[in-house]
Automatic annotation (TrEMBL), chains A, B, C, D, E, F, G:
Protein keywords: Chaperone, Cytoplasm
Record-stated family: Belongs to the GroES chaperonin family.
Biological function: Together with the chaperonin GroEL, plays an essential role in assisting protein folding. The GroEL-GroES system forms a nano-cage that allows encapsulation of the non-native substrate proteins and provides a physical environment optimized to promote and accelerate protein folding. GroES binds to the apical surface of the GroEL ring, thereby capping the opening of the GroEL channel.
GO molecular function: ATP binding; metal ion binding; protein folding chaperone; protein-folding chaperone binding; unfolded protein binding
SUPFAM superfamilies per record: GroES-like
PROSITE patterns: CHAPERONINS_CPN10
One Pfam family from the record: Cpn10
Subunit relationships: Heptamer of 7 subunits arranged in a ring. Interacts with the chaperonin GroEL.
Protein name: Co-chaperonin GroES
HAMAP family the record matches: CH10
Highest classification ranks of the organism: Bacteria, Bacillati, Actinomycetota, Thermoleophilia, Solirubrobacterales
Gene of this entry: groES
């Protein structure tokens, strides 16, 4: 199922990072914080400006890695996979290589 | 009864997906989450821009399949059928084929 | 008493629909939900745009049948009849014939 | 004391209507609802538009009879008389003759 | 100490009116309501419009007598005298002679 | 350490006034109200207007004495001295000499 | 990992100042207030104006030292280091040398 986010929304697939304690122990999933880094897998065309004349382009593109606020967005399940629909304002920063 | 939503509203008929547990058991209706995928059956003409000069067109059209926020919208019953009136801002994404 | 709503308001006379249970029993009035379908009996001239230069016309007209949010509006009693003053934003959809 | 309301405000003198019960009994004052019909006795010149260039004229004039929201406005006592200062947005409708 | 209010603010000196009960008894100060009539002793130059291009002039001038909302404003003590700093939106009406 | 406030902010050094009771007794510091008069020691360049084209200049300048709302602003400690960062909207009035 | 903040956001590395009590005792970390002074290590390109035509430039640049509100921003951990993502409106003042 291919999704096209509306307006200033984007869809993100969380990137879970291995988390080791100081002693090298890998923590099981439930002891970890909800991830806040993800890969952008789809972006909207931008919301309309106040005069309804043109769309304001998004600053993130498909394929970008982004940091996002842990408490923003709506969780959806697509083809058995957990994804997150965010508004661009929930994105804190892009990761540059 | 044919309905024409006002402004930036649309009317959606929920699509209930069969939901099986890992063991293949089909869950009865009350054990399932409220659906959040639906078919757009009517759309408004868009709300006026701030100057009242033209309408801002909607990004969804009749016949589209959309994902929407589970907590948005107003439930209505039309000809015995449960439908949902949403604002376009409650729509998260369109499903593309 | 003839009323002219102000700005983006309209006045609605609720349409009560006969409601029968599965067994064909007609429910007495107190057991029914508050109606959310009504006939528009008067409309305002629209609110001014942000520059105060022209009014934004309403999408509903006198004589329209509308669905409206059950929790919006202000109840008034006019010549012994219960009516409802709504803002146009409380109207969900028009019923088309 | 003559009052000139500011901006989009108006001053209203409530019109109390005789209220009889079905049996014809006139209810004493404390058993009646707070009135919501009134005569406009003064209006402001309108608030400025967003650019501060001109005022947005009011839709009600001195002498109009209006219905207004029971919970809006500020009560004032002028020369021993109870009056109400409303914003135009608290006015639901004008009564036309 | 001479004060110049900022933006859309004004400074008001409350006018206390003698209040007699029906029996002619003058009530001591603590039994009276907080005054809501005052003399304007200083006005600001108005707030800037949204484009920052010009100020929106105030509708009240120094020397005006105004009615104001009892719950608005900030009390200040200037040279031992209790004054009130209001925004113009807290002023309900001007008293005309 | 020299500070430059951002946007429509200013930095104020509170002016504590000697406060004597009627009997001439000078009250110790803890019995006094938080001061609300101060000297402006730095001002921002003003916030941008809505179109991002120019800044809206502040109405207060370095060296001004201002009255400000007791509950606004953020306390900072600079070189051991307690200062207050205010937005211009927290300033009630300028003191003129 | 290099980060590019979005819109009007910036990333700040807190500057912890040694804090001695009057007796010269250095307080351990937990007894100190959360720092509110930091170095700007990355800035966004500014948010779009209301017409979506151009970005409003930020007043802070990479390398600036800023004072910021203790309660604003979102904490992130980057390469093991605690950083803070702020909106420019959370920045109170720049430190000038």
């Amino acid at each position: 199922m291919k999704l096209k986010p509306l307006g200033d929304r984007l869809i993100v697939r969380a990137i879970e990072e291995e988390e080791k304690t100081a002693s090298g122990l890998v923590l099981p999933d439930t002891a970890k914080e909800k991830p806040q880094k993800g890969e952008v897998i789809a972006v909207g065309d931008g919301r309309y400006d106040e005069d309804g004349e043109k769309r304001i382009p998004l600053d993130v593109s498909q394929g970008d890695t982004v940091l996002y606020s842990k408490y923003g967005g709506t969780e959806i399940k697509v083809d058995g996979e957990d994804l997150l629909v965010l508004r661009e304002s929930d994105v804190l920063a892009k990761v540059e290589n």
